Amino acid sequence: MAQDLAPPDQLMQRLFGFAASRAISVSAELGIADLLKAGPRTAEELAQLTGVHARSLYRVLRACASIGVYAEDADKRFSLTPMAEPLQSDVPGSLRAFAIMITTDWQFQTWAEMPYSVKSGKPAFDKVHGMTSFEYFWSHEKAGQVFNDAMTSNSAFSSVAVVNGYDFSGISKLVDVGGGHGFLLASILARYPNVQGLLYDRPVIAADAEKLLAAHGVRERCTIEGGDFFESVPTGGDAYIMKHIIHDWNDEQCVTILQNCRRAMNKGGKVLVVEMVVPEGNAPSPAKFLDLQMLLLLPGCERTEAEYRVLFDKAGFELARIVPTMSPFSVLEGVGK
């Protein structure tokens, strides 16, 4: 176990963290978890099915198995483990697309320029690629598809936790601000048949929500509107939910978005912000590393409870409570002051 190793050995393991990420990502690209669904296979069998070099694939999977992603038996056959199961493409909460995205070339090139962000406080992505990350994804079709698939994958993972962890009963009209293709809103409406929904995002994104909402059987209870949440949001909602939106932007931009929600909501309404909350002190948390992703790619950041309280206060809200979920994400509930 890592905790039994001497400090230099533990540090060496941490320094190879990028290698673990890339190995898992390559296995996801090759669809290894899907191929192991029917049972254990050798690297030779998997290599034949995927068209790659058998010995090299074995070395990748052996490394993955050493950290609990896949397991190797005495006959050198590999099988799924609990950590490998989310790499399947068709399971609820699949993280395959996210695993593929996290070590793309444009990610690695950006992370290599971390010193620039540390020195300047600005996203290294803009320096490396000559444009903002969102502009890059809009103008590079393949990268944009990889990013969108990863966000949908991440949304599926977090949305299930949010629907199971927060009680949406009592809300008549729920507005999903920056709702993307609508996975979260569709999941909520499917669970709560008395809730009416409104999905709001940039027109080019919101237009793609039609099919997903219909597939969930909730299209008739959901309106789709396009617009810019920095300018305004639709009026008349009892609650305004934003998942993975606030962490993209700096404090000033976040206050603008939240104030727009405050002005638009019905009397007695509330705002629901779905994000990771950074724990204080030395407590381990994926939020602390996601925060570095934000540092390098976007003007935003992950925030502590205290920082969210300040942000909500500036926008005219009181942070009434933080509802944890069975995931790294929480629902921060704000009510008007």
Tell me about this structure.
With 337 residues, this protein is α/β, with parallel strands linked by helices. The protein is built from 17 helices and ten strands. The chain has helices spanning 7-15, 17-29, 32-35, 43-50, 54-65, 96-101, 105-111, 114-120, 124-129, 133-139, 141-165, 183-191, 203-206, 209-215, 251-264, 286-297, 305-314; strands spanning 41-42, 71-72, 77-79, 173-177, 196-201, 222-226, 239-243, 270-276, 317-324, 329-336. The strands form two sheets. The protein has a seven-stranded mixed sheet, with helices on both faces. Strands 1-3-2 form a three-stranded antiparallel sheet. The N and C termini lie far apart (50 Å). The model has no long low-confidence stretch (mean pLDDT 95).
Order of helices and strands: HHHEHHEEHHHHHHEHEHHEEHEHHEE
Regions with pLDDT < 50 over 5+ consecutive residues? none
What summary fits the major beta sheet? 7 strands, mixed
The rough form would be described as globular
Number of strands: 10
Q: Rg to the nearest angstrom?
A: 21 Å
Helical content, roughly?
40-55%
Strand content: 15-25%
Distance between the termini: 50 Å
Summarize model confidence as the mean pLDDT: 95
Structural class: alpha/beta
Q: Strands across the major sheet, in which order?
A: 6-5-4-7-8-10-9
Helical segment count = 17
